Every structure is written in C-alpha cells, then in structure tokens.
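Many introductory courses stop at the sequence. We go one step further.
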Amino acid sequence: MEIVYKYNEPVKTEDVIQVFRNSGITRPIGQKERIQKMLDHANLILTAWDHNRLVGIARALTDFSYCCYLSDLAVDQDYQKSGIGKELIERIREIIGEEVALILLSAPSAMDYYPKVGFDKVDNGFIIRRKR
C-alpha cells in the first residue's frame, strides 16, 4: 500500500463525508453544505490517498505563528493502525513549525491515541459547546 499525502489540494465534499463516515468520527455528515463550509474555511488541509480513494484527512485552522487548532483527524477504519493519522499530524507539524502550538479537542474514544503520537493532555482549557 502506497499512501500519497497532499497539502491544501481540492477535495470533494462527498469524499470527506465518506472518510468521516468510515472513520467513526462524529461529524454532521448528513449536512453536505455544512461539511463544505468546514472545508472552505479551514486554512490547512492534509489528505491521504490510496490511489484515487481518500482514506484520511486532517483539517486545521492556524495563524502559522502561534497556534494551530486541529479540528479533524479522520482515517478510514480499513486504514487505521497503519500510521496514516500519525503521518498527517507529523506533516502538519512540519508545515506550522516548532513555534506553533498544535491544539485539539479529542473524542472520548480517542483519548488514549493522542498521547501515543506526541500530544500532552492539558487541564487548562475551556469550551462553549455548539448547540447542534
């Protein structure tokens, strides 16, 4: 299996929805327009491809100077545990540089994953939750 990684290349909304669906991540996959807005307004998108099949995506918002919020990290379940998620994170870190903090909110099911790929758990965060 040879995975090709792409940085800020156009991606079809339907392909992203399929990866979200197949990854187990909770996203509003029934709202195509909302997913499209999520893609349109991210300023850093890395994708992983197996030939013409999108198998992973990392979507982030950053100022490229101080902080970067990793809002999505999703890998198709058929490709999980093959290093794709870790590689997407490493490539984001290369792009943003060492001066930029990489921040995320984890799904409960992924809390054990992130420390394995270099994240530290923090207790000094706050959230105002979305209503839908």
